[in-house]
Amino acid sequence: MRITKSWQEFEGDIDKLVERMGDYIPDVIVAFMNGGLVPAGILAEKLTQKYGRPFRDIRPVSVERKGEERRIAYDIQGSISGLNVLLLEDDLPTGLGPKVVKEQFERRGARVKIAAIYVNPVSEKVADFYGEKLDELPNLPWKPSRKGDRIVN
Fold this sequence. Notes:
Layout: H1 7-20, E1 28-32, H2 37-51, E2 58-66, E3 69-74, E4 84-92, H3 96-107, E5 111-119, E6 129-133
Parallel strand pairs: 1-2, 1-4, 4-5, 5-6
Antiparallel strand pairs: 2-3
Helix pairs in contact: 1-2
């Protein structure tokens, strides 16, 4: 049975992510729409506290999947050329979606890092930063587990 994270546990796990980011400072946080938007707001506030300047540039992106194929379904707005872009997901089951987005953003001239609050032993290799590694990814307070989200038939 999957564990369920409380809001307090989740916030503590974002604190771990911020700690693991060290001195890395993103210019923009790109949040995956299905799970990254809530963490992005909390992460931006924690980075504001850490660095004493506001982190307000949060842009959504959405990836859809068909089997092992991933593609951007909703792209971010505005230029990212020359920017430090932090791709943020709540959890990474495989990391395939962020890898595809990272490749496309790097072709546009961005310097991209991938972050997730939760990784598993498979996706840990994809993430540059993460809060916690778990064998099974948790249920989260704002997002019920719905196997198959974003699958295109």
